[in-house]
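Hi R.,

As promised, here are both runs. First protein below:
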Amino acid sequence: MRVAAILRISAGVLWPYVGAVLACMAVLIGSLKLWKADLHVPLVYTGDQLGVQMWVKGLIDNPWYLHNRFLGFPGQMEMEDYPVSDSFHFLFLKAISLASKDSAFVLNFYFLLTFPLTTLSALMVFRRFQVSYGPGLVGSLLFAFTPYHFFRGIYSCRPIS
């Protein structure tokens, strides 16, 4: 009996977060016109995105992003001295690459996944500060869809035309 009560309570607590993810996905699909997008083609193919695409491709083809045996002459590309702030993102990209070896899909999926994850984390913080669900949901969606997320996530990401 206790297990059923715990599961019922857990399900009641999770439904608002499921609703937040669904609302986020609706806004994301509508704002970027993802029904027209081919996720196996890079969303952006200019600027810094080319270097990031190289890292992801190297991460898929090699054990880690620091060494790429397919680039560099003589030998291989070594990235130990290049300043990168966080390896957690590369670990997450490596986990996604276990499901798909297509570097464009892995990077696009990672970028699109940041929106619901940002919505969830912001909603958790709002709820922790005892903000009710409605305003917390609106605030978390506004936070997830700030222009900064588009400009820094994928350089000059625009809706698919």
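And here is the second one, sequence first, then its structure tokens:
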Amino acid sequence: MKILLFGANGQVGWELQRSLCCLGELLVFDRHTANFEQPDKLRDIIRRQRPSHIVNAAAYTAVDKAETEQEEAHRINTEAVDLLAHEAKRLNAMLIHYSTDYVFDGNKSNSYLEDDATKPINVYGKTKLKGEEAIQDSGCDYLIFRTSWVYSTHGSNFAKTILGLAQEREMLNIVHDQHGVPTSAQLISEVTALCMHRLMYDKNPDALGSEVYHLAPSGKTTWYGFAKYLLEETLSLGGSLRTSLENIKPITTDEFPLPAKRPISSLLNTSKLATSFDITMPPWEWHVRRLAAELLQRNS
């Protein structure tokens, strides 16, 4: 079993290095060793290594910058993914790929199912959706995991930004009218490994593979709820912040305009994944609490 992991130094890729190394021979590539804007070199890597599985954790994820860097976002999130899919088809390899809740417009009143109509409202979401479609059109074997609000102890993300700001500022204003589920990169990597192991040894893998699955913890919150819970946990564990909990103020999306529109609700229904692979999704608070503890330990 040979696994090629792209995007190895990103939030999800960093965790995947740990969770996939026990499944077979794992070869890792980051943006320096596998540039997704250089298709010929990317193709050469795949053809030279001839993997049984390609795991793609590489992506253009700068949601706001994508509004002005549309060509770059398209090359990385769509064109390079299309190349991976066709190379996987040629090798009869499986492609594992990560997509986003931003393929939806956010107007549904309850959580999105995998077969709900997609309608992205920003460039990032549009390029990620086209990447999904390229995989499905290629005819390769695949798993596509849509996830949301990804954070980790590694790399840059909302959680680490909020902790940094709370140590510098006396007051924070956080959007409270966008609903979703914070998802730990650690959870994403562990679920990926469980699903891949199941497919490797299942007697009927065709019943589970070549599907889109929603991957997120249970429960729901807002960016304000996410931030407040993280800071509450940090304080309860002995951390120190300049911002008091009383000075974390909820604001509306209109009060905090950004270049890219965000879905007001991007809740993902994960029952298909849980049922298909016999996986229990923990509450979103579980990994946020762990993040707070790990970052405090690291800083001390």
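A quick note on the second one: The chain has a mean pLDDT of 96. Let me know what you think.

Best,
J.
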